[in-house]
Design brief:
Layout (H helix, E strand, L loop, with lengths): L1 E10 L3 E9 L5 E6 L9 H12 L2 E6 L2 H5 L6 H18 L5 E6 L1 H12 L5 E7 L24 E6 L7 H10 L4 E6 L19 H15 L3
Parallel strand pairs: 3-4, 3-5, 5-6, 6-7, 7-8
Antiparallel strand pairs: 1-2, 2-4
């Protein structure tokens, strides 16, 4: 396992942000991974996702958005999108031989799909969405999904059945409408942060192991 920390330029205006590159031995793919709205690249959920993926030989490139790097108010969508584009470029430069994926947890995933819908991310072959935030809790809506129809590469949605940001009665039709490009894997009893109800969960598999296993399966199925 090779772990490296470094910085890259998020935008000319906002300057540099931190990145964390985790490469397991014999890595097969590299996933550029954005964090949730109120967290950063070192959050426990991000760490758990990266570790589980590493077990299945998927490298990760985690990074901060400028606001989480510097402790300021959240950046505009345009700043976040530009940060993602530059993160993708920095990741590819770090391991140009690995097939590239992009995505993130919650906000990081939504900003990644926003970027991809506006202009395809360079070298990215697929998008992995960890708890895609379809709407705010208690405010069911599908407006946040409207841009997804512009994406032409495979997408994987890894969503908990108790996700308060994604009413399944709305998410399922959204994914179905996207056709073969989109795959939805439901995580039994998991909420938005992937906490599960151990007593009622039918599977004994660790939630992050299940997430990684299905990401690997999706990669193989789509021949990425």
């Amino acid at each position: 396992m090779n772990t490296r920390e470094f910085k890259f330029t998020a935008t000319a205006d906002k300057g540099q942000v931190s990145a964390l590159f985790v490469r397991p031995d014999n890595a097969t793919h590299l996933l550029v991974l954005g964090h949730g709205a109120g967290t950063n690249m070192r959050h426990a959920t991000m760490q758990a996702i990266a570790e589980a993926l590493a077990e299945l030989r998927i490298a990760t490139f985690r990074y901060n958005f400028p606001y989480s790097e510097h402790g300021t108010a959240r950046n505009s969508t345009a700043i976040c999108v530009e940060t993602i584009r530059n993160a993708v470029k920095a990741a590819h430069k770090t391991a140009p031989e690995l097939p590239l994926l992009a995505g993130g947890h919650s906000f990081g995933g939504r900003m990644t799909t926003t970027a991809q819908s506006e202009e395809p991310l360079e070298n990215v072959k697929g998008i992995v969405l960890f708890s895609f935030p379809l709407h705010m809790p208690g405010k069911p809506d599908t407006k946040r999904a409207e841009h997804l129809s512009n994406i032409k590469i495979p997408m994987l949605f890894l969503t908990g059945t108790r996700d308060e940001f994604a009413d399944l009665e709305l998410l399922k039709p959204v994914v179905k409408k996207l056709g073969k490009r989109a795959t939805l894997h439901l995580l039994d009893t998991a909420n938005h942060g992937y906490k599960v109800l151990k007593k009622s969960r039918t599977s004994t598999e660790d939630i992050f192991a299940e997430i990684a296993r299905n990401a690997k399966k999706w990669i193989e199925k789509n021949d990425i």
